[in-house]
Automatic annotation (TrEMBL), chain A:
This is Cytochrome bc1 complex cytochrome b subunit. The gene is petB. GO terms for molecular function: metal ion binding; oxidoreductase activity; quinol-cytochrome-c reductase activity. It comes from the Bacteria. The chain crosses the membrane at residues 38-58, 104-122, 134-154, 166-187, 199-223, 243-271, 322-343, 363-383, 395-420. InterPro entries: Cyt_b/b6_N (IPR005797), Cytb/b6-like_sf (IPR027387), Di-haem_cyt_TM (IPR016174). Residues 5-231 form the Cytochrome b/b6 N-terminal region profile domain. The keyword Membrane applies. Residues 507-541 are annotated as: Disordered. Keywords: Cell membrane, Heme, Iron, Membrane, Metal-binding, Translocase, Transmembrane, Transmembrane helix, Transport.
Automatic annotation (TrEMBL), chain B:
The keyword Electron transport applies. Residues 220-284 form the Rieske domain. PROSITE patterns: RIESKE. InterPro entries: QcrA_N, Rieske_2Fe-2S, Rieske_2Fe-2S_sf, Rieske_Fe-S_prot. The chain crosses the membrane at residues 29-50, 62-81, 119-140. This is Cytochrome bc1 complex Rieske iron-sulfur subunit. GO terms for cellular component: plasma membrane. It comes from Acidithrix ferrooxidans. One of its GO terms (molecular function) is monooxygenase activity. The lineage of its organism: Bacteria, Bacillati, Actinomycetota, Acidimicrobiia, Acidimicrobiales. Its main location: membrane.
Length: 541, 301
């Protein structure tokens, strides 16, 4: 049956070679490589839950009288967007879980992207040949943040409406074209009736479309270039060591999707998020205390708060105050972020290909720079809660604001310095990151103390890294060693039984013109290994 | 006193023993239990849904359903199938030099054939560029009107009746001293731009600045409620300090001196609306605002 199916497709698409290579693709294993996966899986959940929400959400700011299930708002004038969001939350079966999962997934999505970016940065995974994927990734981060903002602006509640008002002011602040941009985006003066339907189209169609396109490119490039790996035994700049796509990686990654979905479902069902019925319908002249955006906009909100009250007025024109923290700062942030591979190349003059990752402690200058920059944005993030902090700790608002203004310039260099010291000091110790040997201190009858090192526990995987049996067989046939191939075929159908290779003389095999040789290898130990390990490809220069 | 045996190295068999042999049976049971939990939770989910749904129960059961599948699959893929590690050579990314040369030649062959007619090429480029440029208009201009004077003026006019959010006319007795409310011109109740905060600071006429001697009759002061920083409603009034606070970014405005910013990022005072009471005690605007309200923009005078 499977043979028939694959034959049917192969005769029409010629998929055998590509699919075999894909099934046998090797994925290096490290927990930090799953951060990008979390982001991707959250996006899939966003699509699922988002499609569900589109069936019930009405993107309109037309005011209607509310007659729904939420008693406190009955008889009040609310917009259709707000009313339909209440309807999703209270009347649609499983609607609240879907809505909250959608919101949580968005928060997890952006968080995972940012931690993923940090991983890529601190390990130097953006270096040649992966610069293009760094650019694509930067674009994905920007799109994710923008779409998050668009999404939580849709329900037309008091907090999101206030956010829209700030967004309008920010658009307005762009030099030369700002007021035109604002009018074209909002369809006139604030608030108007156009913004919710327009944001809806952007939120569910255009930006997700762009994200899907860029994400596909991101994955295709990663697939084509193969994954990076950390330094380790047997790992070189020219190979990939890890688990095979089929079945180990497929099961682990597929299962991890469900684990991610499970966590988001638990958050969506059990942890309340964005209870718009408590905020109420957006009314332009109303506002509430503690107006904070979603967490990923916090750094912008903090920057708006910390900015001194400056404004440039000259030659009959004005550069408004909000331009600096809300247009210039993100502009510089994402430009520098995107251009980082080029900037680092200018500094290091390193034009080599890199497939082996840096340990952050191996490159103290990059690590400390990254930590310093990160600290800057963390301070900005916390600055978005000046009012809540002042209130919770009974401090004067003035004091909290000035404290943050000082911290913004004190914390980053301090954090960078500490990071530099930690990285360079730990990097200088040769045993950093290795398991410590247990010392046994004994005292002789004369009272003399002596220490003895215990033996290291044998690692689970001692250096037995081989190609997949099918790959070895494939190469053997391609290189005209059918007798070897059949020996493998008899011995190891699909991994499991032991094979004897003592009587097979492999000889030096040359594989198709890449200058890579297969060298014979005697099987280890008496019992051999459950999987057919025969030869190991090695590079001979 | 213990003597440490430091001599016997770990036998290679032990070193090489791979995960699958260790305790496959217990892992198999774990995986099976995970999948069974998932099935049970799914049944529970269906029942919950059938009965009308309950968010917390749905969340918990979804967690169990998805988590059961997830943990089962990961455990299966991690402990019951070969892990390697396997090695794979990286292919050289860049192409052979001959390939690149062949590419350049192919490019060149086509470019030469097209390049023979430079005038046609320019004409084609110009027509496509023009089409693209003209097409910008529906995508920009149709989206909204041009600003013109919309940002510089508000619906407040000379003589506009001052009304509350409910549309009721404000009179000289509407507010107690220390009271505050949001007011609008009677033709734009609830308007986002015309919203004005009305505060009563005393009972005598109050002058916030030279030249505004008649603007605060009977201690009533009216300021634009749109923050000059980012446009939020300046909603919080502290009577004790006579300050207005914008809850968005914590700009503080001193009411008695004409809503001048004393703290936070707001760069300009809130514009003051000159008001008066007619012979019936009803409040009106002496004129519109003497400057654009709200945040700054490029063309702001």
């Amino acid at each position: 049956m499977i043979t028939q199916t694959t034959d049917w497709f192969d005769e029409r698409l010629g998929i055998a070679k590509f699919t075999r290579k894909s099934l046998n693709k090797i994925f290096p294993d490290h927990w930090s490589f799953m951060l990008g996966e979390i982001a991707m899986y959250s996006f899939v959940i966003l699509l699922f839950t988002g499609v569900f929400l589109t069936f019930f959400f009405v993107p309109s700011s037309k005011l209607i009288t509310y007659h729904g299930a939420y008693l406190p708002d009955r008889g009040h004038k609310v917009s259709e967007a707000f009313a339909s969001t209440l309807n999703i939350s209270f009347s649609v079966r499983a609607g609240l879980v879907m809505r909250q999962m959608h919101h949580w997934a968005a928060n997890v999505f952006i968080a995972a992207i940012i931690v993923h970016v940090c991983r890529i940065f601190f390990t130097g995974a953006f270096r040649k040949p992966r610069e293009i994927n760094w650019f694509v990734g930067t674009g994905l981060l920007v799109l994710a943040i923008v779409n998050g903002f668009l999404g939580y602006s849709l329900p037309d509640d008091l907090i999101s409406g206030t956010g829209l008002r700030i967004a309008y002011s920010i658009v307005l602040s762009v030099p030369v074209v700002g007021s035109y941009l604002g009018f074209f985006l909002f369809g006139g003066t604030f608030p108007g009736n156009a913004i919710i339907p327009r944001f809806y189209t952007l939120h569910i169609l255009i930006i997700p479309g762009l994200i899907i396109g860029l994400l596909t490119a991101h994955l295709a490039i990663m697939w084509h270039q193969k994954h990076t790996q950390f330094k380790g035994k047997g790992k070189t700049n020219r190979n990939v060591v890890g688990v095979a796509m089929w079945p180990a990686y497929a099961f682990q990654a597929g299962g991890f999707f469900f684990v991610t979905a499970a966590v988001i479902a638990a958050l969506g069902g059990l942890v309340q998020i964005n209870p718009i019925w408590l905020y109420g319908q957006y009314v332009p002249y109303r506002v509430s205390y503690a107006v904070q955006p979603d967490w990923y906009m916090g750094w912008l909100d903090g920057a708006l708060r910390l900015m001194p009250s400056w404004e440039i007025q000259a030659f009959g024109h004005m550069i408004p105050n909000v331009f600096f923290p809300a247009v210039l700062l993100p502009g510089i942030t994402f430009t520098l972020l995107g251009a980082w591979p080029m900037i680092e190349r200018k500094i290091t003059k390193d034009y080599e290909e890199h497939h082996l990752l840096d340990n952050p402690r191996d490159v103290p200058w990059r690590t400390s720079l990254g930590v310093g920059i990160l600290a800057f944005y963390v301070v900005l993030f916390f600055a978005s809660s000046t009012d809540v902090l002042a209130n919770s700790y009974s401090l004067s608002l003035n004091f909290v604001l000035w404290a943050f203004r000082v911290l913004l310039f004190v914390v980053p260099p301090l954090a960078a310095f500490v990071a530099y010291k930690v990285a360079s000091e730990t990097g200088a110790v040769s045993t950093t990151g290795r398991r410590k040997r247990i010392l046994i201190i004994s005292r002789s009858s004369e009272g003399e103390f002596s220490t003895t090192e215990t033996a290291l526990r044998a690692p689970m995987h001692e250096e037995v890294i081989e190609e997949l049996p099918e790959e070895i067989r494939y190469h053997a046939i391609k290189d005209g060693h059918e007798e070897l191939a059949s020996a493998i075929a008899v011995g190891a159908p699909s991994g499991g039984s032991t094979i004897s290779t003592n009587d097979v003389d492999l000889g030096p095999l040359q594989s198709g013109g890449t200058g890579v040789y297969q060298i014979p290898r005697t099987p280890r130990g008496g019992t051999g290994d459950p999987r057919g390990r025969i030869s190991r490809r090695d590079k001979r220069e | 006193m213990s003597k440490v045996d430091n001599e016997s190295p770990t036998p290679p068999e032990v070193a090489n023993s791979q995960v699958p042999e260790r305790s496959t049976r217990s892992i198999e049971i774990l995986v099976a239990v995970c999948f069974v939990i998932s099935v049970l939770a799914t049944v529970g989910l269906a029942v919950t849904y059938w009965l009308g749904g309950q968010p917390q129960v749905e969340g918990g059961l979804l967690f169990a359903t998805l988590g059961g599948i997830g943990v089962g699959m990961v455990a299966w893929g991690k402990y019951l199938v070969p892990q390697g590690p396997y090695v794979q050579e990286r292919d050289t990314i860049k192409s052979e030099i001959l390939e690149r040369q062949a590419l350049l030649e192919s490019l060149d062959r086509g470019s030469k054939a097209v390049g023979r007619r430079p005038f046609l090429g320019k004409l084609m480029g110009a027509s496509i560029a023009l089409f693209g440029l003209i097409n910008l208009f529906p995508f920009l201009r149709s989206l909204g009107p041009v600003p013109k004077k919309a940002l510089t003026t508000t619906p407040w006019r000379k003589g506009s009746a001052v009304v509350g959010p409910d549309g009721k006319q404000v009179t000289s007795s509407t507010l107690e001293v220390g009271g505050v409310m949001t007011v609008f011109p009677s033709n734009d109740v609830g308007g986002a731009i015309s919203q004005t905060v009305l505060i009563r600071v005393g009972t005598a006429n109050w002058t916030t600045r030279p030249g505004r001697e008649t603007w605060g009759p009977l201690g009533y002061l009216a300021f634009s409620k749109v923050c000059t920083h980012a446009g939020c409603p300046v909603g919080l009034y502290e009577e004790l300090t006579q300050q207005l606070l914008c809850p968005c970014h914590q700009s503080l405005f001193d009411v008695l001196t004409g809503a001048t910013p004393v703290f936070g990022p707001a760069p300009r005072p809130l514009p003051q609306l000159p008001i008066y009471f007619d012979s019936n005690g009803n409040m009106h605007a002496q004129a519109g605002y003497d400057q654009p309200v709200g945040p700054g923009y490029w063309e702001r005078p």
